[in-house]
């Protein structure tokens, strides 16, 4: 390499380094300013007390379910981490993908498929184990054909999205020296686009959605949304009962694709409790939580693209792949994406738990019914066999929501602060 090229390389890496620092600071600043760190004034929320609201039988069932599903869950998590580590830190991926032949784009696609197939083959028995547990505990309503179909569809979606991303990075690296610039822009755009079309493109692959049938419940929910000032045309019902007995509701999409969905399993629940569940979802809609989550995710993806460029020296030494222009880089890319997801998970959970607490406060403000809120939390936790007292590791890795006892403690604090009888 002559001096001029080497100088240019140093300059490009420095530019990427600066961009990385700037983007990193922007992500942290956006998270710091958009996360509702305190749903209620400090010092007002008592410590959660599972024994106060849950019977010894409920506590024992939750603990036993946690123990039954823990091993397959942790093993699958560990395997994912191990596989990603192999791809990023060893020449394993390069050697394997080096056997593929054909034009570069075909080798990239085949590489993504091959590595996904290997990881899934190893993980499959753990998925079966987990599903068997769900059935033993009465949470799953699927047969093996439906379960397999679901899993393959999920894999298909993930392979398509990953292939687009990996193909784009390799294509850019083959054409543009400062490929991190279009890669970062593309990662941002792809994340926003995927989140926007998610409810209309991906969700229908897994569930049928129909407008909630006319009746007192629908009327009450739409009236509540209007009282809340959240424009809602419809509440959709998903046929979740084809898969699970769990009770749930969610908001997805933003702008023109935003929708509030309740599981059909929730429809036999007493109306005031369904109203509280939907009031919580209205909280997400009112605060545009999906949009801000998407923007943070998109900024994170852009930062990841720059980080990838900055890490290419390390990757070269560890994996023997000279640059991301090499089709064998598909392995490194898959590994890095999966590591980024796993490693950022705990931080995402911290933010998510605060966003969820704000939606709970929104629901309480709207309904002023903390006693119903407590009853609803109790019902949801029982039906879903939620972990009522997760250990630190479970809480850090898995808890995207506060626990039911934490949410109940929040409702009690809200009642005290608002002069409503404490449940
Ligand atoms: Zn929520």
From TrEMBL:
The chain crosses the membrane at residues 16-37, 74-92, 104-122, 154-173, 180-202, 295-315. One of its GO terms (molecular function) is metal ion binding. The active site is at residues 281, 360. Its EC number is 3.4.24.84. It comes from the Bacteria. Residues 215-414 form the Peptidase M48 domain. InterPro entries: CAXX_Prtase_1, Peptidase_M48, Peptidase_M48_N. The keyword Metal-binding applies. Keywords: Hydrolase, Membrane, Metal-binding, Metalloprotease, Protease, Transmembrane, Transmembrane helix, Zinc. It holds the Pfam family Peptidase_M48_N. CDD domains: M48A_Zmpste24p_like. Belongs to the peptidase M48 family. This is STE24 endopeptidase. It comes from Nonomuraea muscovyensis.
């Amino acid at each position: 390499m002559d001096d001029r090229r080497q100088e240019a390389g140093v300059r490009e890496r420095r530019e990427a380094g600066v961009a990385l620092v700037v983007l990193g600071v922007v992500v942290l600043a956006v998270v710091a300013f958009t996360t509702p760190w305190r749903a209620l004034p400090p010092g007002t929320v008592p410590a959660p007390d599972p024994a106060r609201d849950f019977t010894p039988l409920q506590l024992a069932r939750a603990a036993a379910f946690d123990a039954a599903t823990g091993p397959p869950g942790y093993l699958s998590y560990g395997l994912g981490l191990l596989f990603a580590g192999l791809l990023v830190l060893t020449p394993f991926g390069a050697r394997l993908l080096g056997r593929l032949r054909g034009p570069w784009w075909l080798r990239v696609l085949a590489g993504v498929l091959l590595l996904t197939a290997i990881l899934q083959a190893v993980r499959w028995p753990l998925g079966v184990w987990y599903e068997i547990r769900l059935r033993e505990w009465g949470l799953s309503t699927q047969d093996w054909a439906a379960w397999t179909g679901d899993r393959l569809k999920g894999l298909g979606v993930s392979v398509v999205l990953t292939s687009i991303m990996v193909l784009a990075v390799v294509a850019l690296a083959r054409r543009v020296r400062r490929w991190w610039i279009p890669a970062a822009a593309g990662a941002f755009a792809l994340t926003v686009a995927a989140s926007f079309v998610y409810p209309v493109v991906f969700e229908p692959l897994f569930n049928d959605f129909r407008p909630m049938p006319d009746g007192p419940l629908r009327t009450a929910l739409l009236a509540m949304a209007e009282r809340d000032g959240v424009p809602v045309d419809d509440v959709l019902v998903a046929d979740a009962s084809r898969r699970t007995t769990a009770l749930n509701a969610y908001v997805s999409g933003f702008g023109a694709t935003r929708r509030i969905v309740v599981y059909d399993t929730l429809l036999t629940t007493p109306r005031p409790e369904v109203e509280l569940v939907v009031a919580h979802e209205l909280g997400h809609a009112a605060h545009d939580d999906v949009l801000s989550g998407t923007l943070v995710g998109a900024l994170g993806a852009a930062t990841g693209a720059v980080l990838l460029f900055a890490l290419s020296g390390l990757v070269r030494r560890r994996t023997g792949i000279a640059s991301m222009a090499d089709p064998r880089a598909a392995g490194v890319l898959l590994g890095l994406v999966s590591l980024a997801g796993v490693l950022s998970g705990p931080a995402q959970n911290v933010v998510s738990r605060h966003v969820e607490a704000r939606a709970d406060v929104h629901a309480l403000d709207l309904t002023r019914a903390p006693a119903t809120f407590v009853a609803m939390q109790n019902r949801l936790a029982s039906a879903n066999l939620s972990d009522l007292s997760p250990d630190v590791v479970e809480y850090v890795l898995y808890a995207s929501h506060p626990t039911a006892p934490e949410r109940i403690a929040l409702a009690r604090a809200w009642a005290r602060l608002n002069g409503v009888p404490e449940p």
